[in-house]
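Lab notebook: predicted structure, single chain.

Context: the supervisor wants predicted structures on file for every construct in the current expression panel, including those that have not yet been purified. This is the next one on the list. No modifications to the sequence; it matches the entry in the shared construct table.
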Amino acid sequence: MANANHELKNVFAQKFNEFQLAGLESYSKYLKQQQKLSKSHENWESYGKYIENEIKRNDKKIAALNEKMA
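Prediction complete. Output recorded below exactly as produced.
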């Protein structure tokens, strides 16, 4: 019985990690779109810097999650 609970817990943990990864990848696409948009407007320099930092932070999260799932 304990083995079945442990396997079920692993399945749910894997599904949760996949869900998180999908969300982070979607957020990455959004950030890249916003980065392109910020380059086309002169007065959005500070927003562009914020987006660059956010992309780096998101990439670190994706790498950590991929490492966790491997």
